[in-house]
Amino acid sequence: MEKTIDVNQNVYGRFALSAELDEQVAATLQRVLRSLVQVQNGRRGAGAGIIWKSDGVILTNSHVVGKGQLKVTLSDGSQHRGSLLERSSDLDLALVKVDASRLPTALIADSRSLRVGQIALAVGHPWGQVGFVTAGIISALGTAETRSRKEVPYIRLDAALAPGNSGGPLVNAAGGVIGINTMIIGGDQGVAIPSHLAAAFVDQVASSANVQVV
Amino acid sequence: MTLSVERNMYILLSDALADAVEKAAASTVSVVARPRLPSSGIAVTADLVLTADHAIEYEEDIRILLPDGSESKASLAGRDPGSDLALLHLDHPSLVPAEYFSEEARVGQLVLALGRPTSEGIQASQGVLSFIGGPIQTNRGSMLNRFYRSDAIPYPGFSGGPLVDSSARVIGINTTGFSSGVPIAIPAGFAWQVAESLHLHGRIRRGFLGIRSQPVEIPTAVQNLLGRTQASGLMLVNVEPGSPADRSGLMLGDIITGLNGSTIVDHDSLLQNLTGDVVGKAVSVEILRAGTKQVLTVTIREQR
Known about the structure:
By secondary structure, chain A is α+β, with helices and mostly antiparallel strands. Chain A has helices at residues 11-14, 19-34, 62-65, 195-207, and strands spanning 36-40, 47-53, 57-60, 70-73, 79-88, 93-98, 119-124, 132-145, 151-160, 169-171, 177-182, 189-194. Chain B has two domains: 2-201, Thrombin, subunit H (Beta Barrel); 207-302, PDZ domain (Pdz3 Domain).
């Protein structure tokens, strides 16, 4: 049975919470959880990452990659050796390649039209809990200065993140990735680099001559 | 199941939350009246801003950052440290007044805390109304009949900003200015009353009796004199010479059991009944003295 919803009315104020809402939240997370990976660099615990392209291109944090050998665990449990394609310490992003194909990719949303107050869900492996979901709202859209004095825009979630969330996605209510969580700005505050910057980073890597990303 | 984007309740909820933030943000300003971290404020009229008193560290050169990014100078219209509220007057009326909800909020209802601590735009956090407390005597020497607590994150600079409901109506003003920085919200109905008094008089009037007292038990046999069950009253341990209490004939050892028709059982109930409303008025004071009930008349003065 389909329900009609008057968009002009306030959802929280006028509608009884229903199982339908629960189902929709779960459905929202399905695709991103399939594309969620664990990235281990041989030293510390695991960070998170998402499958950006189905041929094995994975996006994670630069600080998650570190300097060691990379081991990537996919959501189906399979483990792969990863090689670093490119990294940006300013954006705290890194692209990693695993030798696999037809992988489930994440849905990437446009992060240029975000609004404070929108629901956002951080997905990652805080304290080693694989595929852990932290919900909140976008609490601020700001800019921070990196160590190399570059201004970088960020999205702040009104929930605390923990080690293991790094490199994981921040998704909107439609399940689209709006940011990549990082902990290099603001301690345990849930801060993410907007996905449009991540997309630009991937495109830049793809267009450079000596690296091939399809 | 299929995800129909138009009918997805979760997306509607997300948009509704962003709409509420956007609406409330139009009346939420940044208040620059202390070094380093600005605080927040709420537009109550086109040229008046209600904010947290403790964040006003200098009274000259107060600046307001408006939601549209422009800046305005403001002067102090009045401040009430007791309730941690202050009212600012803008040179040019250009604000969008906030809508407020003066009835009591409900524990469990969805709330959003808003603040504008930087020029980078509105900030918000979401939670539920966790607790309704009060009356409490604050460390600022006043009574707060009611206060709200929520689990929404109080980011730095959120003091003076609104706590709103899902329809963007202000239900309280956030502050960490009370005891040991615990984040609470001052209920909007009360805050708007304070704003009105500050606008009219520049201050909040409180009644003054001129006594020091301590709560004491009233034995059951003595309670019969009162004709009601009342287990405690306030015994006078000092009466200031020339004070309203002294002039009314109140004496050391008297036990105050009622004022102006209300029962007085402790300091809190006395403070609650010594509001600005009774200043200058002759009101009845019910006492127990030497095993008898007496009723005197006291003319309340304004506390200075």
